[in-house]
Amino acid sequence: MALKDITLGQYFPGHSFVHKLDPRTKLLAVVLYIVALFLAKSFVTYGILFVLLAVSITISKVPLKSIVRGLKPVVFIVIFTAILNLFYTPGEHVLAKLWIFTITLEGVFNALFMVVRILMLIAGTFLLTYTTSPILLTDALENLLGPLKKIKVPVHELAMIMSIALRFIPTLIEETDKIMSAQRARGADFESGNLIQRAKALIPLLVPLFISAFRRADELAVAMECRCYHGGEGRTRLRQLHYVGRDYFVLVLFVVLTVLVGVLGRRFGL
User: Chain-centre distance of CA 151, in angstroms?
Assistant: First the structure.
């Protein structure tokens, strides 16, 4: 897996229908989509959600290869989760028995649905970050969590931390790639050997990477202080958030689909 395959935090500017949606709408839509994924129980409900995801990606005009490339880093986790569900799901229809492991028909379906659920969840989350800038995500999160300010929750600070984290993920990945290239030029080998040897070879990357990260954090803090930055009350925004007709349409659509998937799963087992 190459570092360029990690696309979390990247933003693809555009003027599509998805890009123009209010960021609060997209956040709520993703939350509803995740809830629907956990309520889905069969090919029918997963098919509905897959069509919804496919249509959203098509409308957003985000390159499909970017979505697929972003899924590569989680392939190991997906395979590991599938194996656990395959061998440790009890059921009545036994397909095979290998030593202490038993494969059942229920385990096969459970593993399949778990893989599909994880991949669709990650793809939907990536679509949110691909079509929404970190600044707008921060404003949306702060606005949605606004009521928590009444109980002294530092909403603005939490939203700012999330925004900075998303913003610097691509930067740190680029920095890591530069450090690896410099060490390869000096004879370092990151490709050969078993998994443990490869992990040990990555240890020398940590020191310069942490130094670079702390340096960037210090520079950012100094820049914010020089500009007299302070969050909270009285701070204005360049772009004001307003719901329009398309936002209400999307919210109603996702609420209806979530309720539909929930009813189909609970009432009919679909």
Answer: 29
Per-residue pLDDT tens over the stretch 151-160: 888 888 888 8
Residues 6 or more apart whose CB falls under 8 angstroms from that of 150 comprise none
Confidence of residue 120 (pLDDT cuts 50, 70, 90): very high
Q: Which residues contact 156 (CB under 8 A, 6 or more apart)?
A: 142, 231, 232, 235
- Residue 231 is encoded by which pair of tokens? 């969050």
* pLDDT tens, position by position, 35-62: 999 998 888 899 999 999 999 999 998 8
Three-class SS state of 94:
strand
Q: How far apart are CA 118 and CA 217, in angstroms?
A: 32
Task: Return all residues near 138 (Cβ < 8 A) that are at least 6 apart.
Answer: 159, 160, 162, 163
Tell me the C-alpha distance between 77 and 132, whole Å: 26
Angle at the Cα of 208 (from 202 to 214), degrees rounded to 5?
Answer: 125
pTM: 0.79
What amino acid occupies position 12? F
Give CA 64 to chain center in angstroms.
16
CA–CA dist 114, 85 (Å, integer): 8
Say how many Å lie between the first and final Cα of the chain, rounded: 36
- Alpha carbon 82 to chain centroid, angstroms: 19
Question: Cα–Cα distance between 68 and 170 in angstroms, integer?
Answer: 17
3-state secondary structure 33-75: HHHHHHHCCCHHHHHHHHHHHHHHHHHHCCCHHHHHHHHHHHH
Asked whether residue 73 carries a pLDDT value surpassing 80, the answer given is no
Cα–Cα dist 69/61, whole Å: 16
CA-nearest of 82, 110, 113, 108 to 94 is 108
